[in-house]
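Please go through the protein record below and see whether the fold suits the sequence. Record follows.
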Amino acid sequence: MRLHTRTWGEGDRVALLIHGIMADHRTWRRVGPALAARGLRVIAVDLRGHGATARGDYSMELFADDLVETLPAGAEVAIGHSLGGLALSLAVERLAPGRAVYSDPAWCLPRTEGELDGPQALARAKTLSREYITALNPRWETEDIDVELETLAVWDENTAFGLAPAFGADLLPAAPVVPSLVQLAGPSVMISPANAAELERRGFQVRTVAGAGHTIHRDDFDGFMASLDGWI
């Protein structure tokens, strides 16, 4: 599937931005222009079932295949958040960016049962209220709350069920395909300290943005950008 994209900047130096579940390219509203100001042509996607991209079947592999179908190979850097980090890790060998950044990637989703079942819980987020989103993300700017409500309205919650095999699975990459940074929230609900240490052992650089929640680039934009020092 060819994905809808948004581009900031111009030129031959390319950066790729891949959002997490429930979001779309608008989650990068500050990051895209900031990278463009550094001389990069920044391309952000809407994954299938998100934003202006079409609906269809959903799986980890399809999310990754769509990236390869849509994005140019050989970008200077590729940044993926959460589901976007998982999809990037499955596509990185084919996309062959110079560097990869995995921002709180969804490599170790916990398995739960009953009403707490992971895919069902994610799908229920479709109906989150402004009040709940604001309370959950006290550091977000008002525009981020507005964007979250807009993206939830057009998100296909069935994407959550396509990720069912990821819950309870160990999806940590065996080794970095390209020089790779794992950027963690502080603390991370995605990557445990033990898994962070294992990733370092496997050759990934790991940096934590202290005090930031899962969506680091919205929770602490300055901390997000600072942690990319040497990677962009």
In short: Residues 119 and 164 are 6 Å apart (CA to CA). The two ends are 28 Å apart (CA to CA). The beta strands are 4-8, 14-18, 41-46, 77-81, 99-103, 180-186, 205-210.
